Amino acid sequence: xxxxxxxxxxxxxxxxxxxxxxxxxxxxxxxxxxxxxxxxxxxxxxxxxxxxxxxxxxxxxxxxxxxxxxxxxxxxxxxxxxxxxxxxxxxxxxxxxxxxxxxxxxxxxxxxxxxxxxxxxxxxxxxxxxxxxxxxxxxxxxxxxxxxxxxxxxxxxxxxxxxxxxxxxxxxxxxxxxxxxxxxxxxxxxxxxxxxxxxxxxxxxxxxxxxxxxxxxxxxxxxxxxxxxxxxxxxxxxxxxxxxxxxxxxxxxxxxxxxxxxxxxxxxxxxxxxxxxxxxxxxxxxxxxxxxxxxxxxxxxxxxxxxxxxxxxxxxxxxxxxxxxxxxxxxxxxxxxxxxxxxxxxxxxxxxxxxxxxxxxxxxxxxxxxxxxxxxxxxxxxxxxxxxxxxxxxxxxxxxxxxxxxxxxxxxxxxxxxxxxxxxxxxxxxxxxxxxxxxxxxxxxxxxxxxxxxxxxxxxxxxxxxxxxxxxxxxx
Length: 476
Description:
By secondary structure, the protein is mostly beta strands. The chain has three domains: 23-185, Immunoglobulin-like, CATH 2.60.40; 188-345, Sandwich (Immunoglobulin-like), CATH 2.60.40; 348-472, Hypothetical Protein Tm1070, Chain: A, CATH 2.60.290. The protein is 9% helix and 43% strand. Keywords: Signal.
């Protein structure tokens, strides 16, 4: 009998241990993330909306353990001491509904400091049957209010709990134990889907792209970075395509600015945007639209005729968005420039940033400009001359007397100076004139290098560093 009694006690203890183990390894997964939905708020909204209250979605906590009276649940809010403590509910009660117990929690204390607010809720009542459980009970703390002027970094809520004896409780759940109440992000972005990518044909005097093509296309979209619950209203957006547009010919000298030939630039929105006609300068193509949209910019060099000499260079999209909010203020923001492709040459290009010249009736300054061709073929040479005021003059191969860069070393000094005199670039004005030269050779980048220097009064030689070694040797 004694042995039987001992066996019975051991069996009962085993059942108790199994029950405890089951309670410890069952659900045990507190979940704050599933029921609490983040509100997305833009930084631009916070900037222009009336200062005041940001109201969260409901803060919803699903319990993952068995709770008892006097256990304590803590909600920790981080993000700038922004919580309005008065918006916390004093009590949250859930009625019993088998197999779930009923539970009431009451707010007993709060603390604020160092960007953090803690709200402590004590379990004041548990109801329900003996076999019911608090695991999976859902506590809804409702919506909470936050000071919008302190919420620019976002607001997060996290959950923790301790038993009435001070032990950690309901420790499962991992990342689901916290959730962002407000996620703050920049509202606007520009993305390029089709780059400008023309390859300028040196053999065609840089008047077309390879294959006698005259058209290139850029496609980009201004949009919101996310679906925002609270966002600023768009009032308009200004675009500027940065690049070298010095090739565009002015068709009307009596009108301010550059009046491009019709058909050179076409701006087409995909959606409902209404856009202004593009305005071109030597360094940018600009236009404005009333709303965000996908934009196609078609560039056709053909209408410019044979006078247009296309330069190599990169492009980028700049944008300035204007926005506001009813009852608030208005503002604007420059978005980061987005790369929009490049026009390249099927030849060599070397930039000499500085080269002085004497006036055409003087001779105190002379130039030393040589092209070295380490290849086996000859390539025609042309030169772009940029004056101190930014005016660009193209010296075609014909202007340079048909000179070519033959294998070996070719001197360009006299041909360039004669062509500049013929174009009137050295006539009148000061005795010394400054220019930048862009030497273009119809040959592979990696076989061409340029030496550039000048003499003053026949003795003072000034070497001028150009980019032929840096650029030409590394392009291919």
